[in-house]
């Protein structure tokens, strides 16, 4: 049994090498074939990531490449399958939205060993020597702005709740840290609950329902994305507390932009997924043209949207 385990690893290594060599031969045999770009995203069960994926694929197509979208369904194992498929099928670059900051590193390293560049979009991995470049929303700074507005609207006092996203996603903690870097300086503001809802609208609604049973007197809710903000708002409406509790989100989703216009949601952090996705596709083109000196992390500004400036924005961007 021990011998079998030990002998399996060199076999797998040789198999991967063989696959990569085969793919390389196919490319060399048809040098005029269009480059193939894999767009691997964490989930397509969230409109924000649908926009990210489709924009990346569309821009890659505009640039003359073949593009295919792969949905990891927030599952690192499925993400691994997609990377193996991309390598064995001879893809030339991967535009990547990671499932997990730590768990996705191995997949990026596998692609790097196969000489396939990986450009991370929005979510980062906790390594600076694996991806070719990481194009990331400046979530921390965006939530500093939201934190200041939160303090202002709650008049520096009252109980509040924070609903977090996926615990394995660095964006979850960047947003939380940015928010708390401001709010924690005001002792009159008391966080009575902090729970994760995995960036999921339905889960956030359930979390908010449970919290309200224990803390019916909260004044504000800060949510790590707009899907959760809408879920929390639904729970508040059902409890008859939508007028008493202020909800703050993050993303710039269509329904939240509309809700801000209607005075239901107080504010959100507008991300720019289309800009991130187009940049990743254009970086792939530059890589194919011979460029190698990409910045490891490329921050993309997040802008706060509230009732005062909402007319300047639409879903996932400026008008």
Architecture blueprint of SSEs:
Elements (H helix, E strand, L loop, with lengths): L1 H28 L6 E6 L5 H16 L3 E6 L4 H13 L4 E4 L8 H9 L4 E4 L11 E5 L1 H15 L4 E7 L5 H14 L5 E8 L4 H14 L5 E4 L2 H13 L7 E3 L5 H8 L5 E4 L2 H16 L8 E4 L2 E4 L6 E2 L2 E2 L1
Parallel strand pairs: 1-2, 1-3, 3-4, 4-5, 5-11, 6-7, 6-8, 8-9
Antiparallel strand pairs: 10-12, 13-14
Helix pairs in contact: 2-10, 3-4, 5-6, 7-8
Order of helices and strands: HEHEHEHEEHEHEHEHEHEHEEEE
Question: Uncertain spans, ≥5 residues at pLDDT below 50?
Answer: 1-17, 21-29
Cross-sheet strand order for the largest sheet: 2-1-3-4-5-11
How many runs of DSSP E, i.e. beta strands? 14
Please state the overall shape, judged from the principal axes of the Cα atoms. Answer: elongated
Distance between the termini: 63 Å
Helices, by number, come to 10
Mean pLDDT across all amino acids? 92
Structural class: alpha/beta
Strand content: 15-25%
Largest sheet: 6 strands, parallel
Percent helix, as a range, is 40-55%
Question: Radius of gyration from the CA trace?
Answer: 22 Å
């Amino acid at each position: 049994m021990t011998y079998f385990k030990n002998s399996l690893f060199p076999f797998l290594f040789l198999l991967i090498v063989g696959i990569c060599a085969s793919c390389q031969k196919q490319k060399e045999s048809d040098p005029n074939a269009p480059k193939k770009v894999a767009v691997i995203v964490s989930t397509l069960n969230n409109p924000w990531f649908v926009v990210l994926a489709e924009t990346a694929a569309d821009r890659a197509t505009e640039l003359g490449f073949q593009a295919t979208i792969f949905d990891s369904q927030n599952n690192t194992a499925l993400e691994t399958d997609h990377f193996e498929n991309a390598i064995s099928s001879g893809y030339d670059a991967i535009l990547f939205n990671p499932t997990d900051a730590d768990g996705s590193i191995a997949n990026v390293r596998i692609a790097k060993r196969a000489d396939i560049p990986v450009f991370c979009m929005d979510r980062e991995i906790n390594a600076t020597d694996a991806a070719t470049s990481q194009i990331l929303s400046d979530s921390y700074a965006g939530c500093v702005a939201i934190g200041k507005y939160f303090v202002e609207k709650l008049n520096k006092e009252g109980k509040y709740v924070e609903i977090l996203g996926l615990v394995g996603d660095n964006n979850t903690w960047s947003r939380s840290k940015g928010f708390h870097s401001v709010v924690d300086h005001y002792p009159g503001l008391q966080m009575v609950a902090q729970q994760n809802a995995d960036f999921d609208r339905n889960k956030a609604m359930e979390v908010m329902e449970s919290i309200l049973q224990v803390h019916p007197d909260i004044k504000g809710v800060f949510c790590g994305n707009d899907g959760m903000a809408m879920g929390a708002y639904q729970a508040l409406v059902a409890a008859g507390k939508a007028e008493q509790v202020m909800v703050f989100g993050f993303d710039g989703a269509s329904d939240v932009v509309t809700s801000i216009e209607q005075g239901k949601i107080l504010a959100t952090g507008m991300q720019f997924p289309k800009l991130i996705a187009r940049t990743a596709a254009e970086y792939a083109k530059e890589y194919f043209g011979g460029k190698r000196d990409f910045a490891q992390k490329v921050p993309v500004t997040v802008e706060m949207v509230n009732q005062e400036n909402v007319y300047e924005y639409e879903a996932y961007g400026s008008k």
